[in-house]
């Protein structure tokens, strides 16, 4: 990567997930060691077959939208995204957007679709012929009977559209989907655009809800969903020998990225600096190839940032309590850190698998770690399978300098983001 013209910093953060509906609530819960996994509510069991999940309670359109009637056009993921995006802009000091937004971008990573039974089943039923699905009937009957508002809910580009309209964003934009790694790519694209001087600021983030039929069935087909008992608080156990699979969850996280010059001129609070971004892809679907890609993504990111692994204080793992995927990332991390004193932290132990919003959530948390001088605690880690140096079971004050954040989930594409503390 060519040297960037501008340094890029984080000046705004917004989050919503099962731990809370804003950054402060979520950060407080984490530092108290409080997880957000619960028994699946009765009204969700028709969609969510998993006995436990991460669920955002009391998600009210009337408290999120300027006009709550527009909620009929949105999936739950869009509501989550608008809530987090609005917070990020407010924290950054952009309560009112400027008229000229040519240099203010929007980069959004979304899940593949938000598809509930009530949305999908009527389409399938109309296409049934001779004990099977007829694509001809789907095209001639299902689509003719389809609710015209359905596309506003389920198309992967629509959350970005809803965010733009709700928040009055008119500048350049980009949508990426459907895996967590696309959250890293969204940040990487904005980082590059600002660093090259094409933009001054960008609202960047991701959103997803896996608590619907399409999301759950996808995880079932991949064979990664949780199949353990009903101990909700202990279900999400990244890197623990007793892990039983991924916990479906939901959430959103957004950041305002900005050139250091712009942030300084505005006298904005700076959470952290985005130093580097790297990615790599597995050539084949075997574990060795995936492990190699994960290692390569981390190594490339450090190389681009001209930082040695011994300088990394905290590594945010993307492990989600999946037997195979945790093993792949664990082997790659162990190879990378060697004998360094880098500590490992697994945020998904607290809130489960957020899907597309996983990476941006971890980046927001890393920014809060750096700006607040806090190493967050580990939970649900009683049997450390890979003998990795995880964080302690209680919060530790520390003047951190660098954090490395991973996106090494089920996708063959792996990515990492490097953040650094900005010295006053």
Task: Summarize the biggest pleated sheet.
Answer: 10 strands, mixed
Q: Architecture of the largest domain in CATH?
A: 3-Layer(aba) Sandwich
CATH class of the largest domain: Alpha Beta
How large is the radius of gyration? Answer: 21 Å
| Uncertain runs | none
Series of secondary-structure elements, N-terminal to C-terminal: EHEEHHEHEEHHHEHEHEHEHEHEHHEEEE
**Overall 3D shape:** globular
The chain-level structural class is alpha/beta
Oligomeric state of the chains? single chain
**Average of pLDDT:** 94
Percentage of residues in helical conformation:
25-40%
CATH superfamily of the largest domain: Thiolase/Chalcone synthase
* Helical segment count: 14
Number of domains: 2
Sheet with the most strands: spatial strand order: 7-4-8-9-1-10-16-15-11-12
CATH-assigned fold name of the largest domain? Peroxisomal Thiolase, Chain A, domain 1
Task: Determine the N-to-C terminus distance.
Answer: 27 Å
Count of beta strands:
16
Strand content: 15-25%
Gist of the model:
With 424 residues, the chain is of the alpha/beta class. The protein has 14 helices and 16 strands. Strands 7-4-8-9-1-10-16-15-11-12 form a 10-stranded mixed sheet, with helices on both faces. Strands 2-3 form a two-stranded antiparallel ribbon.
Keywords:
Peroxisomal Thiolase, Chain A, domain 1, about 35% helix, globular, 10-stranded mixed sheet, 2 domains, about 425 residues
General description of the model:
The protein is an alpha/beta fold and 424 residues long. It folds into 2 domains: 8-113 and 155-420, Thiolase/Chalcone synthase (Peroxisomal Thiolase, Chain A, domain 1, 3-Layer(aba) Sandwich), CATH 3.40.47; 117-150, no CATH class. Helix content is 36%, strand content 20%. It contains 14 helices and 16 strands. The protein has helices at 23-31, 61-64, 76-92, 117-126, 135-145, 150-154, 158-167, 180-195, 213-222, 260-266, 287-305, 323-337, 348-351, 358-372, and strands at 8-16, 37-39, 52-54, 104-110, 128-129, 132-133, 173-176, 201-209, 250-259, 272-281, 314-316, 343-345, 374-375, 396-397, 402-407, 413-420. The strands form 4 sheets. A 10-stranded mixed beta sheet has the order 7-4-8-9-1-10-16-15-11-12, sandwiched between helices. β11, α12 (323-337) and β12 form a beta-alpha-beta unit. The longest helix is centred in the last third of the chain and has 19 residues, at 287-305. The chain is globular and about 65 Å long.
């Amino acid at each position: 990567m060519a040297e960037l013209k501008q340094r890029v910093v984080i000046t705004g953060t917004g989050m919503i997930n099962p731990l809370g509906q804003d950054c402060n609530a979520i950060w407080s819960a984490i530092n108290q060691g409080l997880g957000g996994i619960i028994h699946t509510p009765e009204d969700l069991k028709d969609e969510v077959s998993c006995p436990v999940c991460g669920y955002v309670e009391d998600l009210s359109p009337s408290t999120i939208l300027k006009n709550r009637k527009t909620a009929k056009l949105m999936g739950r993921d869009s509501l989550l995204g608008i809530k987090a995006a609005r917070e990020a802009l407010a924290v950054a000091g952009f309560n009112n957007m400027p008229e000229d937004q040519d240099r203010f971008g929007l980069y959004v990573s979304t899940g593949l679709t938000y598809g509930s039974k009530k949305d999908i089943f009527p389409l399938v039923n109309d296409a049934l012929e001779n004990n099977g699905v007829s694509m001809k009937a789907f095209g001639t009957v299902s689509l003719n009977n389809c609710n015209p508002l359905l596309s506003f809910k389920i198309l992967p580009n629509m959350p970005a559209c809803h965010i733009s309209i709700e928040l009055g964003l008119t500048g350049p934009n980009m949508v990426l989907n459907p895996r967590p790694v696309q959250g890293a790519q969204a940040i990487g694209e904005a980082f590059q655009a600002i660093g090259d001087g094409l933009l001054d600021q960008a609202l960047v983030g991701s959103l997803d809800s896996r608590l619907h039929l399409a999301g759950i069935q996808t995880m079932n087909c991949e064979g990664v969903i949780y199949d353990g008992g009903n101990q909700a608080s202990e279900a999400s156990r990244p890197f623990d020998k007793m892990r039983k699979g991924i916990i479906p969850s939901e959430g959103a996280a957004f950041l305002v990225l900005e050139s250091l010059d712009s942030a300084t001129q505005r006298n904005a609070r700076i959470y952290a600096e985005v130093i580097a971004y790297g990615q790599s892809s597995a050539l084949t679907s075997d574990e060795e190839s995936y492990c190699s890609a994960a290692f390569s993504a981390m190594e490339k990111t450090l190389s681009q940032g001209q930082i040695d692994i011994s300088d990394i204080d905290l590594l945010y793992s993307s492990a989600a309590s999946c037997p195979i995927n945790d093993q792949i990332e664990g082997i790659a991390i162990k190879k990378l850190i060697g004998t360094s004193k880098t500590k490992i932290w697994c945020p998904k132990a607290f809130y489960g698998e957020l899907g597309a919003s996983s990476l941006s959530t971890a980046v927001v948390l890393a920014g809060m770690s750096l700006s607040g001088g806090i190493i967050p605690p580990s939970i649900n880690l009683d049997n450390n399978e890979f003998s990795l140096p995880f964080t302690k079971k209680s919060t530790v004050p520390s003047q951190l300098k660098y954090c490395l954040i991973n996106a090494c989930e089920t996708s063959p594409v792996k990515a990492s983001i490097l953040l650094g503390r900005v010295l006053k």
